[in-house]
Amino acid sequence: MTRPLDGITVVSLEHAIAAPFCTRQLADLGARVIKVERPGSGDFARAYDTRVRGEASHFVWTNRSKESLTLDLKQADAMAVLKDLLKDADVLVQNLAPGAAARMGLSYEALSASHPRLIVCDISGYGEDGPYRDKKAYDLLIQSEAGMLSITGTPDEPSKAGNSMADIAAGMYAYTNILSALLLRERTGQGSHIDVSMLEALGEWMGYPLYYAFEGAPPPPRTAASHASIYPYGPFAAGDGGTIMLGLQNEREWKVFCAVVLKNAALAADPRFDTNAKRNDNRAELKALILAEFAPLSTAQVIERLDEAQIANARMNDMAGVWAHPQLQARQRWQTVGSPAGEIPALLPPGRNNRFDYRMDPIPKVGEHTESILRSLGRSDADIAALHADHSI
């Protein structure tokens, strides 16, 4: 089947997570993504860990369906190869250190005159201007700057999100901006410059707590895994040691919860708990009542009661639970992709489309496609040998 981005070529000067996560989404839709890596070691994310049969967990997640080209861009011959690639490229993505791409002559301003249809996407911590422009940025630092740590964790201690939220947010906004720029180019014939900042991406995701604290109002408190303003909404222990997340949204659900789940219909009218505001104020007392009812029950029995009452609920799965999740298996969301370590499982991208199948090609070895790409650019065996000899590739 024809994929949406078949025929689109993306060249990416990428490392870590934000840019690779963006370009993997483009590859999923059929784009040819040429990942430019350092000769020898490649993207430093390859060395984060060895959890996937010797390969790094972050790397296998964000780099399937790409071609790996090694270039030392400090060498003139290597830069010449990159410039040749850009002649026919549709998109250039980069998340190098602040200002590094511009110093190499790879800014949109430097490229647009000779490549008017090229879309250039720069991903950085803070954006291309402003007082923070030159600051280094890592995911934890941006989670802190964007205020996420201030509302995440327990009352006693802030916590970062367990995944790379700032990187993921920036990668997804880069991805959607590139799709928008491709659509715009169809109308105007012109490329675009996209400037995506991790701070602004995560700042968008912080919209609710920002408005909750509007005009100096107190911010949402840190409430661990519970909701900051709705109760009961969060984790509760069953008698077998399992944890169930449940959430009530309105007074109708509260009455059903009392009658069906707690087996105490009269509790719904208790003046301590007859509105959400009161339940929120009297959390400790209500939690004790809920836990007392759940104590003789297994996790499955608690979930059975919640399902009977049509109260939203979920198990608190660990990673093993997600690998074996029956819903993901029933919907056939797991496939396999090749890698330097052999075939490994991979989740299909979210969203099923009846018109095409996602591209699920292998994760490349460092420089795996260097010579084939060079030959496609017209380099001879002697040219390639010379590039090897001066360590340009």
Summarize, please.
With 393 residues, the protein is of the alpha/beta class. It has helices spanning 18-28, 57-62, 76-87, 100-103, 108-112, 139-145, 148-151, 165-188, 198-205, 207-212, 251-261, 276-281, 283-294, 299-308, 319-323, 326-330, 370-376, 381-389, and strands at residues 9-13, 32-37, 66-70, 91-94, 119-124, 193-197, 233-237, 243-247, 312-315, 334-337, 344-347.
Structure description:
The protein has 393 residues and is an alpha/beta fold. The radius of gyration is 26 Å and the shape is elongated. The protein has helices at 18-28, 57-62, 76-87, 100-103, 108-112, 139-145, 148-151, 165-188, 198-205, 207-212, 251-261, 276-281, 283-294, 299-308, 319-323, 326-330, 370-376, 381-389, and strands spanning 9-13, 32-37, 66-70, 91-94, 119-124, 193-197, 233-237, 243-247, 312-315, 334-337, 344-347. It has two domains: 9-206 and 326-389, 3-Layer(aba) Sandwich (Rossmann fold), CATH 3.40.50.10540; 233-315, formyl-coa transferase, domain 3 (2-Layer Sandwich), CATH 3.30.1540.10. It contains 18 helices and eleven strands. A hairpin with a 5-residue loop joins strand 7 (233-237) and strand 8. It is 39% helix and 13% strand. Helix 1 packs across helix 8 (165-188) and helix 8 packs across helix 9. The strands form three sheets. Strands 3-2-1-4-5-6 form a six-stranded parallel β-sheet, with helices on both faces. A three-stranded antiparallel β-sheet has the order 7-8-9, with helices on one face. The model has no long low-confidence stretch (mean pLDDT 97).
